[in-house]
Amino acid sequence: MKVAAPTSGRVTNRGRSLLVALPLMFGALAHAGTDSASTLAEQRAKAVTEVVLGILSYARWPVEPEQLRLCLVGPTEYADDLVKGTTQASGRPVAVRRLLANDPRIVTECDAMYLGQLSQDERTQLFSAVTGHPVLSISEANDPCTVGSVFCLRVSDQQVAFEVNLDSVARSGVRIHPSVLQLSRRRAAQP
């Protein structure tokens, strides 16, 4: 899957975040002015799915899984499309399942986690459990992209943006292709 050039972006020092915004495509109903809350929610869910699949396409695990296992943890707002399961542009299937934050299978049966609303204690315990295991984390909630979360989504009516926590990337055990940084640098260099 190709990730569209970002609409804004910045690269900051290590330990800070990379912000890359991707346009949210609206359907004909939204352009006609007849958008409803459910239509917007569906469009956001589809846009989030595109962004998550794009993020996953830039990730490399120490041992590449034939089927990528994405675990949804906590109540989510935009994961409806992800729950259906999907296939990456490379043809690799993505199996999606919901697990509780304290489920020990997260460490052994998840290549990536999509995190919804979790308490600070749940987040702390979850990230403590996956430390030392190659698990990529993507946070949906308005989280400050603190240590633990590798990618943090920012969803609005106009776009889906994400931040990358460079410290968490280094600790995750999952390599992120430099193209993610290059996309941002290229856009930030434009007038």
Structural write-up:
The strands form 2 sheets. The chain has a 9-stranded mixed β-sheet. Strands 3-11 form a two-stranded antiparallel sheet. The longest helix has 21 residues, at 37-57. The chain has a single domain (9-189), classed as Aspartate Aminotransferase, domain 2, CATH 3.40.640. The radius of gyration is 16 Å and the shape is globular. It is α/β, with parallel strands linked by helices. The model is unreliable at 1-34 and 184-191 (pLDDT under 50). It contains 7 helices and 11 strands.
Radius of gyration: 16 Å
Total domains: 1
Q: Spatial order of the strands in the main sheet?
A: 1-2-10-9-8-7-4-6-5
Largest sheet: 9 strands, mixed
Unreliable segments (pLDDT under 50, ≥5 consecutive)? 1-34, 184-191
Based on secondary structure, the structural category is alpha/beta
- Helix % is 25-40%
Overall shape: it is globular
Q: Beta-sheet strand percentage?
A: 25-35%
Tell me the series of helices and strands, N- to C-terminal.
Answer: EEHHEEHEEHEHEEEHEH
Q: What would the CATH topology be?
A: Aspartate Aminotransferase, domain 2
**Count of helical stretches:** 7
Overall pLDDT score = 77
CATH class: Alpha Beta
Any idea what the CATH architecture is? 3-Layer(aba) Sandwich
The total beta strand count reads 11
Cα-to-Cα separation, first versus last residue: 27 Å
